[in-house]
Amino acid sequence: MHDNYFESIYGFKVPIEDRHKTSIINGLSGIMAILYGKGDFTKTLSIATSAGYDCDNQAATCGGLIGVLNGAKAIPERFTLELPSRNKWQEPFNNQYINYSRDGLPNYNRIDDMMDRIYAIAEEAILKNGGFKKKILEKEYLFIKTDF
């Protein structure tokens, strides 16, 4: 499979610059990580990064999907509370997002504040498109309108 997506230039193997081919290999690497990771966060990320093509994007996408499917409890604390260069935190990522490289975004955000903004946008979009809210056991849920 590797040889179909790389070419030799001056004796070095480099990715073929055909965006259709490179997006296919990235997509297939992500699918492979999700399938063989079997819902395990660490295993899925290990496969995604080991695939060796676009490993940062695949790991982020697959890790996000596994997190959504299995919830925050599925992400080991060593990834959220125990980073080598920091003391152990009481809450994931110390509830901080620090921006070093994205122009137009604040340098510092609380993760809780970001979640509140994302939820408000999602709620508005869901309700405007036929979804609804429902309270179940004292907890409010959003339901997305589906075609089935």
The averaged pLDDT comes out at 86
How many strand elements? 6
The number of domains: 2
Major beta sheet, specifics? 2 strands, antiparallel
- Helix/strand order: HEEHHHHEEHEE
Gyration radius (Cα, Å) is 20 Å
Number of helical elements: 6
Low-confidence stretches: none
What order do the strands of the largest sheet run in, or round the barrel if closed? Answer: 1-2
The chain-level structural class is alpha+beta
Taken as a percent bin, the fraction of beta residues is 15-25%
Principal-axes geometry comes out as globular
Helical content class: 40-55%
Ends apart, CA distance between termini:
38 Å
Describe the fold and architecture.
The chain folds into two domains: 1-75, no CATH class; 92-148, no CATH class. 48% of the residues lie in helices and 16% in strands. It is globular and about 60 Å long. The chain contains six helices and six strands, in the order αββααααββαββ. β1 and β2 (12-15) form a beta hairpin. With 148 residues, the chain is α+β, with helices and mostly antiparallel strands.
What's a quick, concise take on this entry?
The chain has 148 residues and is an alpha+beta fold.
Features:
6 strands; two-stranded antiparallel ribbon; two-stranded antiparallel sheet; alpha+beta; 2 domains; 148 residues; globular
Q: Could you outline the blueprint of secondary structure elements for this entry?
A:
Layout: H1 2-5, E1 6-9, E2 12-15, H2 19-37, H3 41-50, H4 55-70, H5 77-80, E3 96-98, E4 108-110, H6 111-128, E5 132-136, E6 139-143
Antiparallel strand pairs: 1-2, 3-4, 5-6
Helix pairs in contact: 2-3, 2-4, 3-4
